[in-house]
Amino acid sequence: MNKRKMLLASFGALSLTAAMPAGAAGPGTMSPAVAPSPQVDAALLAQLDARRAARGQDARFGYAVIKRHPGAQGTQIARVAHTFKGVPIFGFESVLVLDANGKIVSESDSEQRANFAKPDAAGPGADFSVVPAISSKAAIDAALASLAPLAPSARHETPPSAELIVWPALRTERVPEARDKPEAALNALDVQDVVDHFELAYLVHTRMVARDKPAYHDTVVAARDGSILAQWSMLQTVVGVGHSQYNGDVPINTTANNGKFRMIDDTRGTGGTFGAMAITNADHGTSAGDVYVNDTNTWGDGKQYVAGGSTTNANGQTAAVNAMWGLMNTYDTLKNVFNWLSLDGHNTATYIAAHVNTAYDNAYYSDTCRCMFIGDGSSFYSLGSIDVIGHEMGHGVTAATSNLTYSGESGGLNESSSDINGEAVEAYARGGGRGDGIPLTGNDWMMGKEISKTGTPLRWMYRPSKDGNSPDAWSKSIKRLDVHYSSGPNNRMFYFLAQGSSADKAGDYYSQYLVKRPAAMTGIGIDKAYRIWFNANTTKFTSSTNYADARAKMIEAAGELYGKSSREVIAVQRAYAAINVGPDVDEAAGP
Q: pTM value?
């Protein structure tokens, strides 16, 4: 096939085929991926086994390699689950940084895992059995029965599956130093999650479609009697609408074959469903459909999709133009800033399906295909705006790395990570889509403003509470919120880290928790803030990372990139202090 570059008109000097920088693109640049193999994994497990005795653990405790992906400056990252009698303990993980020879350089544990490693920590008892009393099929049936009221007459998009796990039943308690603190004065570092007891369970994955809408859930089912221990939605969405009616005339890469043009960009990504990055036409269905094809290499009309109209004519193509431009810019942001290739770091191609369902006010990332779906909207405009697409693709990066559990505080951090990615991609694209850094300006610090018919965004990064549901700061109740709301404090943290705060108590940029000097903290710019976040999410966070753990690992990440006594480390401390996570510090002081 002959590659063609489509240019509808001029959009500044926008170039979406920039080559990878010859040298390191700055702090956080990723290394080439190392292909996993049984021999490589065995060598890593041998290193971990040698450490087990030092932790006072016997042969019942082991490790399983979950995934590998590139790290920075010649390193590789391995994520391992901790097991008991060969069964993984849910949320007990370590992130290992390995040198070029596979030797462990550093280890970052989940909070529960770190406590579990202490010599006096109680693990599953000697009589804890890993033999289930019910079958995996019975566990799946129990999960489906619990979902019947939520998803009646549903069909399976993929067959349901179940894996055996050791489930740590957690409780939240105060640390000794905060025992007498008033409830309203509690800081995120004043409480910790501890294991109350362990249960053998199944983690059941169900991916269904009900009433033409996706219904994705993970359910924890007790292996003793089939009771439901926990359940959460896995549909990683942002409510809204979008299209490249938002960006004017933009260049997109397509391929030519037999006189037709296909919306496949074979310069970005390899393998996957279509061999390269692609845009498909769901044509109001729930499946991806076929790749967009056109007789000419001019696509779309720049206007909102007309409900009930063709999805393949010029008006119907506009949603596809939006999607491709967003996909290309997100890919380029990750590649040029971090040398991170595609969603998984291994350059595996993904795709976006446009026109999903009918008048659908949503966009979502699917873990079944590692792809994205965008609707045409009803209350909103088309969901293909640049920040929304950057958000959804951000879910793919998180899924390939930290895999933050989509529930409680970790779920809020998962959503926030995608909002952060959306804002960074928006700034990069509007800054020209080239270079190895994120421009200081170009994004609006609001999620989904362009897709709103009223001009009211979905979320305000700088003041989450403006939506009426999201908190501005951490509290004990945050883990009970929907993850789109519990993301709010971390979004505000990131804004303060990048842009700084204000001392004006009546303004949107003030935090009552900043009590040191100066009253208005100083930001470090979106480029540095994004590098620190990406470093922490890809090399330190585990699936169970909460707000307190995120703060600790963000401080580590900033120290690695800019020095342990740097102003960037102080800025991270102050940004988290601004949302009631950890103490505030003077900017002139050390970390």
A: 0.84
